[in-house]
Amino acid sequence: xxxxxxxxxxxxxxxxxxxxxxxxxxxxxxxxxxxxxxxxxxxxxxxxxxxxxxxxxxxxxxxxxxxxxxxxxxxxxxxxxxxxxxxxxxxxxxxxxxxxxxxxxxxxxxxxxxxxxxxxxxxxxxxxxxxxxxxxxxxxxxxxxxxxxxxxxxxxxxxxxxxxxxxxxxxxxxxxxxxxxxxxxxxxxxxxxxxxxxxxxxxxxxxxxxxxxxxxxxxxxxxxxxxxxxxxxxxxxxxxxxxxxxxxxxxxxxxxxxxxxxxxxxxxxxxxxxxxxxxxxxxxxxxxxxxxxxxxxxxxxxxxxxxxxxxxxxxxxxxxxxxxxxxxxxxxxxxxxxxxxxxxxxxxxxxxxxxxxxxxxxxxxxxxxxxxxxxxxxxxxxxxxxxxxxxxxxxxxxxxxxxxxxxxxxxxxxxxxxxxxx
Length: 422
Fold this sequence. Notes:
This protein has helices spanning 2-8, 11-14, 25-34, 72-82, 130-154, 186-194, 197-200, 211-221, 262-273, 334-340, 348-368, 400-403, 409-419; strands at 20-22, 37-42, 48-54, 57-61, 66-69, 88-92, 100-107, 116-122, 160-167, 173-181, 206-208, 223-228, 238-242, 248-252, 255-259, 279-283, 289-290, 293-304, 307-318, 328-332, 375-382, 388-394. The strands form 4 sheets. Strands 1-6-2-3-4-5 form a 6-stranded antiparallel β-sheet, covered by helices on one side. Strands 11-16-12-13-14-15 form a 6-stranded antiparallel β-sheet, sandwiched between helices. The chain has 4 domains: 19-92, Dna Ligase, domain 1, CATH 3.30.1490; 100-182, D-amino Acid Aminotransferase, Chain A, domain 1, CATH 3.30.470; 205-284, Dna Ligase, domain 1, CATH 3.30.1490.20; 289-419, ATP-grasp fold, B domain (D-amino Acid Aminotransferase, Chain A, domain 1). The protein contains 13 helices and 22 strands. By secondary structure, the chain is of the alpha+beta class. β21 (375-382) and β22 (388-394) form a beta hairpin.
């Protein structure tokens, strides 16, 4: 609601805003008295319920079912049963027959930089001619830049904002929502690192998760990774794989389940994971393995004496049947891991040099993004051919894992870096 009020203060933006209020019995009844359709949204996450009042009936569309009730009291009771969070907003849905929705990601490099369009995604149900979409997007871009410029002044630490924008064939354009992606968001971090040409080849292909990107990535890569935009320790990370019999396997932790179709796989994910958090979708990187268990490399960088330095590297080997290395069964030095993985073509000196270069460059970029950082832990994946991929940067890395190595030198170096003059 705070973003809505900020945008409402701009007279030129006000006409593009969808009427929005906090959800209550009174606001629900008031909006349905004057509008046939409303949308109820959770304040946090993409959970959404659509309501249509027609022929003296209320039609309720949730993420996985359609319900019908006869009166407003029954509607309130049904909503209380369906809603999973405490706070919601209600919006009037435009009464036009055909509406097209886009998710536009806007990014700026620093608080003083100009905003630009970093990504745009058409809603999967918005079947609109590509030429028409391009024409409308010129107008959408102007509105988006004005909106995020306004929001950016109120939230100077936010450099990535996703706008949900809709339009119709009668030149109407509406801003439905604005989602702030602070520096701890993986979606924001991706755009910070992507702007450096030298790092792009080390970044897995990434998008915001929508039904469209879910389908597209599975068609392209057959196996994909879904991650919450915010969060640590691998909580909520999923792997989705298309199987030979056209079913879809969902892998979470050590659990695996199968859905019979693409739509049912997405519906399961939407119901169980997307109600409270925004997600990204990524191509899956086939990591090198030790005894069939994937591993990645944690590289710690620290700001010491006014410069970024690599102060530690450790290899995390995933537990058996686990998808990610957060549940590590074994911690190794890099040279031990290369020996155990039987990778004779990998030269330790070359890998070390590349890891240092990538991590230091990424550290400088994240710091320039306006953050006061003194330590970062990068998780970097390596394939059996030696290709390196930045999985993510952790700004509160666990350094205790270094204390579990037999040689405590790196652990002491990291502790020394914490106490040194920055």
